[in-house]
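<discrete_fold_record>
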Amino acid sequence: MHPDDVRDAARLVEWGLHPRALPEAYPDYRELVRRWMDDGAFKALVTSVAEGLKLRVVGVTLRTGIVLGTETESVFGYTISRFRRHVSNDDGAVIALVLVAACATFYPAKDALDNDEIMPPSATLSEVRDHLSKLCQALESQDQRGEATAARWRRGWQALRALPDVNEDARRGSRNHLHGLVTLVLGHLHEMGLVAADERQDGNHLYVVTPRFRMMLAEHAAVPLLDIAREAQAEKVNA
């Protein structure tokens, strides 16, 4: 093993910590991705470097670059502390439910995650907000029937059910209304390179999923909350 190989492997992992960077814009990044695809020894070395940092390689393509996930207690983990300017640690369940609603809005069916779509899914901020509201209503109904998943997430959906959809007197990105919370979460997804944003004058921005988002979500497609969110969304469509 040559020291340059270790350096190059670490460099590819480091590219993964810049989620909005894509190989098409950086020749050295592109070459490292090609090396991953063609060189089995280099691929194993990159995997080992990632594991040493409590990261895992979700996937590597010329389109997305290297996509990394985190192991438990990784310093690179995307935790509630990323939202610390806007929400407290007690709001973890709230943020998780907003994320689930966004995932279910972009991918209302599991099998859509198996397709590397030419036209990526998109949704407006208000669509995600409405699906979040529907998810919380579904959890409340399940809780009344004594279902365990709803009880586990009670702290989150109760807090969300107490909020208005929109508060015109509050900041657009505020935790005091559903619209504001969705704005915060989608904004962070944009920062992480998981969605692209098409800003609109009325504030009802359109968000478009990136291939990185699909790749990350495919790892966690079998989550009970996602099933509940999808079912709630289908009920709304069929109502």
About this structure: The radius of gyration is 19 Å. The CA atoms of residues 199 and 217 lie 24 Å apart.
